[in-house]
Amino acid sequence: MSEWSNHARVLACIARDPEVRLNDIAIAVGITERRVCGIVDDLAQSGYIVKERSGRRNHYKVQVNAPLDEAVSQQQTIGHLMTFLLGSQSARRQHSMRA
Known about the structure:
This protein is an alpha+beta fold and 99 residues long. It has one domain (2-98): Arc Repressor Mutant, subunit A. The protein has 4 helices and 2 strands; from the N terminus they run αααββα. It has helices at residues 2-16, 22-29, 33-45, 78-98; strands at 49-54, 57-62. It has a two-stranded antiparallel sheet.
């Protein structure tokens, strides 16, 4: 579960900023840049993201219609996961601003 948790958090960072740098993801998620690189490769090989080179930077496209792994959730897509994750983060941000 923790492994998928890191994958989901990396995916959420990419969804928020398709040109995010691996170092910035590593800081946001709290894992090493090397681990982020491995997770991004996993996500690309699984068809959850497409990685494109743009000059010296990478640009990522989240494949929102890609089905989630059966071990995670049946008949759910990456888009469903992103809505859940990003919606939850927005709610937490608003709650902390009120406090």
